[in-house]
Amino acid sequence: MGDVREGIRSREAIVEAARALTIATGWDGVRMGAVARAAGVSRQTVYNEFGTKAGLAEALARWEVDRFVGAVRALLNAHGDDVRAAAHATISHTLVEAANDPLIKAVLTSTRGGSDELLPYLTTRSELVLTEATEVLLEWADRVLPGADRDAVAFATDSVVRLVISHIVLPGAPVAQTAAALADLAVFLLAHAVTRGDGTG
């Protein structure tokens, strides 16, 4: 058990070091040797844990997604069965946190001067974000809207998550306005799922 715990601590230290270096230099400027030194491990340990820099990028992306999804779950649960309040609080929090998150800022900024392996986790390879976030939303919807049509709920949650991601990558209107509009859309789509579930829609 001691070796397992030590391995987990080592892996976490490496990811945290990679995060700090990405914020400081952008992902393109991160080197595996620098990550190893910052984490207090050997360079070989970093390669043993993650294989390649791309593997480390995936681990870092998953780390961030898990952190955001944990906050989403807590906010949804805090609002009980008030669908709009839960949707608005969750969307608003996510947009504000993303706008202020130094790692996301570093990723979005660095891509303007080059290419960044982390950006696809918000765009062309966003399956990780979509899967994790929609699973949490589906769990919540199953609890607060038990009679809703499952396919319609899945479409609603997937659509809202995709729109939130797009507003993180390319913000448009002020966060308060965007959050309100997306919360209204979530309510509309979920209401449709309910009517389909009870056979009236």
> Could you state the order of secondary-structure elements as H and E?
HHHHHHHHH
**Which band does the percent of strand residues land in?**
under 5%
Structural class: mainly alpha
| Helicity range | over 70%
Top CATH class of the largest domain: Mainly Alpha
How many whole angstroms does the radius of gyration measure?
19 Å
Largest sheet entry: none
**CATH superfamily of the largest domain, please?**
Tetracycline Repressor, domain 2
What's the end-to-end separation, in Å? 54 Å
CATH topology of the largest domain, what is it called? Tetracycline Repressor, domain 2
Instruction: State the CATH architecture of the largest domain.
Output: Orthogonal Bundle
Number of DSSP strand runs:
0
Low-confidence stretches: none
- How many domains in all? 2
Number of helices: 9
Care to describe what's here?
The structure is a single chain. By secondary structure, the protein is mainly α. It folds into 2 domains: 1-51, Homeodomain-like (Arc Repressor Mutant, subunit A, Orthogonal Bundle), CATH 1.10.10.60; 58-197, Tetracycline Repressor, domain 2 (Orthogonal Bundle), CATH 1.10.357. It is built from 9 helices and no strands. It is elongated and about 60 Å long. The mean pLDDT is 87.
Can you tag this structure with a few keywords?
201 residues, Arc Repressor Mutant, subunit A, Tetracycline Repressor, domain 2, 9 helices, 77% helix
SSE order and pairing:
Blueprint: H1 2-25, H2 32-39, H3 43-50, H4 53-78, H5 83-100, H6 102-110, H7 127-144, H8 150-169, H9 175-197
Helix pairs in contact: 1-2, 1-4, 1-6, 2-3, 3-4, 4-5, 4-7, 5-9, 7-8, 8-9
